[in-house]
Amino acid sequence: MKYAHLIKLTAFSYEREDNQSILDALFGFFPFNLEENKVILKKTEAAGFNEKKIMIFEITTTKEVLINQFLKNLSNNLGEEQKNKILQQIGSRLDKNLDFFLRFDKDAWINDKKLILTDSGKCFHIKISVAAFPKKREIALKLLKNSFSEK
Predict the structure, then answer these.
(1) What is the pLDDT of residues 8-36, one digit of tens each?
(2) How many domains does the chain have?
(3) How do residues 121-137 score in pLDDT, each as one tens digit?
(4) Residue 55, beta-bridge partner list
(5) Could you give the angle at the alpha carbon of 35 between the alpha carbons of 78 and 19, nearest 5°?
(6) Which of 8, 55, 84, 130 could, after both became Cys, cross-link 13 (CB 3.0–4.6 A)?
(7) Does residue 143 carry a pLDDT above 80?
(8) Distance CA 62, CA 106 (A)
């Protein structure tokens, strides 16, 4: 079953952070080898406040089989408490374009391999473009509920 058209995962690395640990954690979201599956890691350098250097790491995939593997891995790594929190907030995380957004605490994933939802900026950003047909909010919400309710 097709759940999404696109998965986009983004992380920011600030000057004093260890880029390699962020990259390793970023790759940990994917249960497959990015290079073998021709999924590209995009790196962009930006300037933050006071001209401090920020590295932006971004991974995007549109391949259905990879998206399904990603979503299954994401669900498997979520604790029941976090799944319930997502289900409670599902409507507010879905925008009018049927893009679904999640943010997971960067330190919790890097250090403890725990996915903890956060509202802070120090996080891994996930954008899921939901494959609802017809393209209606109710259908997208049902797909998401099914995806995060599965054991």
Answers:
(1) 999 999 877 889 999 999 999 999 999 99
(2) 1
(3) 899 999 999 999 999 99
(4) 13, 45
(5) 65
(6) 55
(7) yes
(8) 24
Q: Where are the beta strands (DSSP E) in 15-150?
A: 41-47, 53-61, 99-105, 123-130
| CA pair distance 137, 91, nearest whole angstrom | 9
Q: Would you state the pLDDT for residue 128?
A: 98
Take residue 69 and report the two structure tokens written for it: 């593997």
Rounded Cα–Cα distance for residues 48 and 35 (Å): 30
Give the C-alpha separation, 131 to 116, whole Å: 25
Q: Is the pLDDT of residue 151 over 60?
A: no
Tokens 């979201």 identify what position?
Answer: 29
| CATH number of the domain residue 135 falls in | 3.30.1440.10
Check: pTM over 0.70? Answer yes or no: yes
Separation in Å, CA 11 to CA 114, 131, 140, 149: 16, 24, 25, 26
Domain extent, residue 15, equals: 4-149
